[in-house]
Amino acid sequence: MRYGRFDDENREYVIERPDTPLPWVNYLGCEAYFGLISNTAGGYSFYRDARLRRISRFRYNNAPLDASGRMIYLRHEGERETSDPLFWSPAWQPVRRPLDEYECRHGLGYTVIRSRQGAITSSIRYFVPLGESLEIWDLTLTNIGGRPAHLSVFSAIEFCLWDAWDDLTNYQRNLSTGEVEVEDGVIYHKTEYRERRNHFAYFACSRPLAGFDTQREVFLGPYRGWDSPAAVESGRVSNSIAHGWQPIGAQHVRVDLQPGEDTRIIFLLGYHENPAGEKFDPPGSQTLNKRHLRPVLDHYRQPEKVETAFLALGAYWDGLLSRFQVNTPDEHANRILNLWNGYQMMATFNLSRAASSFESGIGRGIGFRDSSQDLLGFVHLVPERARERLLDLAATQLPNGGAYHQYQPLTKRGNHDIGSGFNDDPLWLILAAAAYLKETGDVRLLDERVPYDGTPGTETALYEHLQRALRFTLDRLGPHGLPLIGRADWNDCLNLNCFSDTPGESFQTTANRDGNVAESVFLAGLFLLASQEMIGIARFHHRLPDVEAFLLAVREMENAVWKAGWDGQWFRRAFDSFGRPVGSQECDEGQIFIEPQGMCVMAGLGIVDGRARAALDSVAARLATSHGILLLQPAYSRYYLHLGEISSYPPGYKENAGIFCHTNPWIMIAETKIGRGDLAFDYYRRINPSLREEISDLHRCEPYVYAQMIAGRDAPSHGEAKNSWLTGSAAWAHVAMTQWILGIRPEYEGLRIDPCIPSSWDGFSARRTFRGRTFQIVVRNPDGVCQGVAEMKVDGVDVPGVVVPADLPEGDHSVEVRLGR
Length: 821
Ligand code: BGC
Ligand code: NOJ
Hints:
By secondary structure, this protein is α+β, with helices and mostly antiparallel strands. Helix content is 27%, strand content 26%. Strand 38 (763-770) and strand 39 (773-780) form a beta hairpin.
């Protein structure tokens, strides 16, 4: 069953009923001010950091779901038809009164919710203008009936007292600190401005207000919810001023509409920061200085300025997405690649794993391994910003080459809040750096001086950071010569040194073993891949003596994998802290894991001697389902002290045999490494969200973005997705499809075109911007093969090999490729 449809031409997903299985969200903002917005205008906003600068509140585990957010109510003041309700929400929530018509369009950086109730139609467009720290709610009301309509419009937002964690917990203080100001109809939220904050939030409107409220319980009335505020029911606000308790912004505007008439009201919710020395006006008072803000408000209260800002946002997204467009025989691949995948990757660029419907914005910041992997996907969209991200990540690296697991976006300082000692973390930085270098050719990056742990005076060249990252693994080898796993590797839940038997103790921060025995085969694969990238980087940087050393390390690691990491038909996953294999035929449960099959084959292991094929055949036989490829089999049926969080999940969920989508593209890439384009693409289709639209009642998450997880076949809800939007699945699915299946792959010397496609395709075309040139690529497949370039022409001239040279003149170029035997 579907709840909406793709409007490919307008680049929107159209939701046709408000009661989607879960809130289906979109993101507003792409620079500093961000918001999540659901199809019923739920969600919340923040400035840079969802934890430390939260503007509005949200209750994740609320019932009903998603009931607070950007609230608008309409109320009939005059006579009304008997079928008309007294008041309703034009976005359905929070009142949830049935609407006669409803449609939500999620587009690139904006959402439009349209509805009709009786003779009143409403359209609300939400977006964040480029370069601004505010969001616009652009409301148009039309009276399509035959008699005049007299309406009250109420808008409301519940302010968060900035630190979202403290706001949820520290009531003894927070119920006394709330402060607001109301001036010229603008509501200012200024809690803690009197002391150390230089920022405040505001809620403004383009119309004169009939009244306002800023104290939540006055607006709602005691013991009432947002679905039936007393002020809306009675049609009267109280002009309340919050002193402590729960500051809100609620505005009341009166509107009279003749038959056929429409009107537009613009609401502005924003964040403003004053220079430290200019906080108050007049100086010495406790009154906010609004001088710098007023021109911004005046500007965006004008509809034509709002229109210009909206067009500029569209042009921004056009520019980004035009860097890579494809036309393949598969409409689902086209739709996702040309629009939603790029768009989702930008959400992961902006927010890493910080704020989504499943990430509270409190728990996690910018993940080291997460953002490093996301960068593999978004680097071609925003190379300059990717460079900055790389340097920020590297600046949190520790002097021993290790890494904090995350940093806070506002401070850019690493922290151990969600654990430390994940031994894979530093290696991903090498992959990210290589991707950036190949995309841009910007060798100077490697000489950038970057500190360790954000400490001035510790700077070394980035190249040295990368070397230390590799060294970090070599300094931590276990009994089989394989990398020690530490707290965990990519799989946060494979906690082989945790041994926790205390209820509620975090698997992510607990370690009861010294960690000198448990090893990871996956990490060995990742090390090999990172070393190969490091060899490429060293060559590119003319560090030839280093290449020898890296090659030696590669050979030794390969030997270790073949000696201890191969199980006969697939790669083992790890060795536990007793030195016993994990992910082996010897195990009762968890005999085969997906991660090492993907990673080791991506690193080239076993391709020549057939063991890669054997491993991938085992994946196909034991892990593949119609909903995607499982993380492991058989699922762990009980809790194992020596395995940790992985066995804490009921079978089929998350890391315990869920379909962890992030890992599926590794298998797709591995399949292309052995030339099986049909299977690679088949796997791609299984997790492509557009193909899952048909089963939205099962899948439940948004059909336009990847989710982290789809319940595995051991789960009662096999096929149900969770944790959409902020997941490495977006970047990896893009990399697998564009670089390995379509085979358009940036390399140091140029753009490689070496597809591995389904044999049934007669070809495809693509347009790719690369180092200031734009390539129109046409691939033909007259012989129906998967792989093998028989001929390549650049601007009509035969070119040897499969790499389009990077040093062609700037401008447009055509590339024609013929696949064949
Ligand atoms: C989840 C992992 C996540 C980890 C760290 C675990 O509970 O299962 O997917 O990476 O927490 O936040
Ligand atoms: C989600 C985390 O964000 C990611 O870093 C981790 O690799 C996966 N879970 C697997 O545990």
